[in-house]
Amino acid sequence: MNYRDYILKLFLRVFILVGLILGLIYFIYEEKTVYLTLISFAIIYSIIELYQFIKRRFSAMDDFFEAVKYRDFSRWFPEDRGPKDIRFLYTGFNEVNRTIKEINRQNEAQFVYLQKILEMVDIGIVAYNLENGDVLWMNNSFKDIIDFPSFKNIRFVEKRKPDLYNSIFETYNKEPNSISIALENEKIKVLISDTIFQVNDDSFKLVVLQNIDNTLNRNESEAWKKLLSVMTHEIMNSIAPISSLADTLQRNIQFSIDDEENHPLELEDLNAGIKTIKTRSQGLLKFAKTYRSLSKVTHLNLQKVKVAELFQSIELLMAPSIKAKNIEIEFSVSSKRLELDIDVHLIEQVLINLILNARDACQNSENPLIRIKASQSQNQQIVIKIYDNGIGISKEIMENIFVPFFTSKATGSGIGLSLCKQIMLLHKGRILVNSKENEGTVFSLIF
User: Which of 392, 375, 382 has the alpha carbon at shortest distance from 442?
Assistant: First the structure.
């Protein structure tokens, strides 16, 4: 709108000037000297006023561009005096200055924020000019790793420790590379990587160092603790039902010894129970061997097994201990012909884990029930579902239940579900979960 107003005023001044010039020509032709003098002064005044009108606007723009040239965004242009079009122009200039200052403040805040983050990480970072060696930026972790005081130029390191200088600053490592560097009293292993970047006409090199000795030692210690936790968890999961089944068999035998007439010994049940204990013990041994040699975890001993037979084995193993807690457990198969090509011992371990989780979830529920159901979907996938009517899983922890070593139980190790997921992935299958708080949970094993 201001631009149109300016053009209108400029056009009006030019129109008046052209009119005066035509009047001058007319009076020259009519030879009217008095009018010639007056109109000549009017033309001169009009030219001067037009010049001032144009110059005023360009001077304001020139002042603004000069301020931009020297990054002087603190300058304030007066918005309350002068011609209206100039005041409007000054308002625009001030708005531009305010916007640029706000952008600068945000950039400075982001820079400080980034600096603080980089200072807090335990990874050493340094950036320096490739041509003159001047350090652009360096965090404290870098100085701690190389055990060196603060320096402004990398030549300082070259004079003190040439070998360290060559390893870090003279060698290019486009991909992360593990190297050993000698400090005062020891050698440490570090992971080093670097990259070159351009800022205007200057080239800089960014070097990143990470002390992996401490990380390896810490990770090794944690790995041992977690491995022991895994072994304890899985062994206990198998030993508990075996012990319960053995106790039931022993009690039946004792009843038969004490009163054979009223408690005859069912040899078929005894044989089935002992066979189940033997089978599960073999599975437990295989599981222990698998964890003893982790390289074998990807090897599956696949065999075809009917789902009904798999369920029968699990029911015989788990039902006594589950029912002892007054929890109903039901197994059902949509068709006796359903077959799976699986590592039986590992899938048994998955089912045991999920059934025990279901037991823990519903043991305090009214009429607690666990149902294990197998069926075939329309796309020929076999699905085993484990239902319970327990407390369910809250939304807050749902996303983390398959994360290794995450647990919501006070005595849990957090590896049961992650192990189940790993075993299903080895079988090229999936494990899904659907849960509602205070209603129940269903885990689906999809083959």
Answer: 392
Tokens linked to 132: 């003159």
Contacts 24+ apart (CB under 8 A), 200-206: 202/129, 202/130, 202/131, 203/129, 203/130, 203/131, 204/127, 204/128, 204/129, 204/130, 204/136, 205/127, 205/128, 205/130, 205/169, 206/125, 206/126, 206/127
pLDDT confidence bin for 1, thresholds 50/70/90: very low
Tell me whether domains 118-211 and 300-447 share a fold.
no
CB neighbour list of residue 419: distance below 8 Å, 6 or more residues apart = 230, 234, 349, 350, 353
Q: Which two tokens stand for residue 34?
A: 């008095």
The CATH architecture one would assign to domain 300-447 is 2-Layer Sandwich (3.30)
Q: What's the token pair of residue 130?
A: 């490739």
Q: Which amino acid is at 363?
A: Q
Decide yes or no: CATH 3.30.450.20 for domain 118-211: yes
Stretch 98-102: mean pLDDT, rounded?
Answer: 81
pLDDT at 310 over 50: yes
Helix (H/G/I), strand (E/B), else coil: 77: coil
The residue extents of the domains of the chain are: 2-106, 118-211, 300-447
Q: pTM score, two decimals? A: 0.40
In whole angstroms, what is the distance from residue 271 CA to residue 357 CA? 29
In contact, 132 and 152? CB cutoff 8 Å: no
CA distance 106 to 267: 82
Reading the block at residue 229, the tokens are: 């936790």
Other C-beta atoms within 10 Å of 228: how many?
11
- Contacts of residue 400, defined as CB under 8 A and 6 or more positions apart, other chains included, come to 406
pLDDT bucket at 307, cuts 50 / 70 / 90: very high
